[in-house]
Amino acid sequence: MNLPEDLRYSEEHEWVKVEGDKVRIGITDHAQDELGDIVFVELPEVGDELAVDDPFGSVESVKTVSELYAPISGKVVEVNEELDDSPEYVNESPYEKAWMVVVEPSDSSQIDKLMTAANYQAMLEED
Amino acid sequence: MADVKRTPIFPEYEKLGAKTVDFGGWDMPVQFAGIKKEHEATRTKAGLFDVSHMGEIYVEGPNSEEFLQTVLTNDLSKITKKRAQYTVMCYPDGGTVDDLIVYKLDEDQFLLVVNAANTDKDFEWLKKHKIDGVSITNHSDAYGQIAIQGPKAEEVLQKLTSTDLSTIKFFRFDYPVTFKGVKGNALVSRTGYTGEDGFEIYLDAEVVRDLWNQILTAGEDVGIEPVGLGARDTLRFEANLALYGQELSETISPIEAGLGFAVKTDKQVDFIGKDVLAKQKQQGTRRKLVGIEMIDKGIPRHGYDVFHDNEKIGFVTTGTQSPTLQKNIGLALVQTDYTALDTEVLVQVRNRQLKAKVVSTPFYKRPKQ
Questions:
Q1: pLDDT by residue (tens digit) across B180-207?
Q2: Do B310 and B335 belong to one domain?
Q3: B258, B283, B308 — which closes off a domain?
Q4: Do B298 and A42 touch (CB under 8 A)?
Q5: CATH number at residue B347
Q6: Closest residue, chain A, to B229 (C-alpha)
Q7: B320 touches chain A (CB under 8 A)
Q8: Which chain B residues are within 8 Å of A39, Cβ to Cβ?
Q9: B136 and B111 share a domain?
Q10: Dihedral in degrees, nearest 10, Cα atoms B213, B214, B216, B219
């Protein structure tokens, strides 16, 4: 299981990468593996406000629909539109090509509450 | 999970990288290498399915055909020994008890292959309506079942048996058939649940695992894949084969589900549900199963509501992104007024209503050889 050290992780299997005063968000390698072949990704629009722990989109595999839960609150400033045509990026490259949104956090202290790679791994092992 | 059942092939799943799920009380593989890969392998090469969870019920005795004619909607008198028939069991109101395949083993001996989750219900239903001169036994635990499906199915299976499989035509079967490296006799029918050519094989639960492994080895050179329930579902859905609990249920009649071909209301015998089903056939039903294809971006899913203007007109029974067609499609049970081809409808996908249109089914038909 690939878990980059420089990311933070949520209990709902999203990753967060801090990039200056913004954060990039996607789903983890573990999440994509659990879901199987991803065929559709539904994302918010630029300008939408995310509220921590609320659904902000969905990822669909052949078999199931899985909601995306915001790991932090903030305003969407970029959306990965390539996932419209290439949802398989989520399986192939969950931390690189399949980033989902870039957000301007409204409360950056929420980032500190997210798990480190080690803590996230420990959570996965408990399951 | 205390009571979860496992098929005799379960010990192989982990080696093959399966993810398992609880399916009607059975711990079954939802996928092995991945739904899309397994789906494609079955459409282009061969797929191997463990369907040992299916129920096998024997109906025997001098009056067995007479009895089955009263509980099954299809006309059993149309088939001779060593033939099989797709048929339905209904309630008096036309709702569906189950859909099944009946095998005519002999003039007074029939094998009913029923949906796993319905086995106990079906067995009780049959016993409740039984007449003299009939014995009914549930042999589900004694049997294993494997399906091999796909254009290369015959080629692969033929490597393991001296029985000429080309002599087994569609919906016919042979017994006894023996396989290399597998003890005992098997029943082999040219049937399936994928829309492809292929076989379903019934044999003793104790040896089904040996046959599974023999077939995987024999199919290696054509690229056979073990297939889980996920791809089994997308394959049968593209071919417009009904799934009990989705296209059929206690409240959905086989006529509504488009299975009129298996409901012979002109057969002489009175069967359970005949009056209602005959009326539905003559006068039409208020709702019907149709194919839909999304116009807007989104995937229809089982249980999503379907609207026209502001009126709810039905619901999606099955939907996904078709791996073969790469389209977002579904089957929906909707009011008959809205079932003409190209009719626009709205599918409630979470908080949005997305446009779709009525299309013809089946979504997929295998190319003629």
A1: 999 999 999 999 999 999 999 999 999 9
A2: yes
A3: B283
A4: yes
A5: 2.40.30.110
A6: A63
A7: yes
A8: 299, 320-321
A9: yes
A10: 180
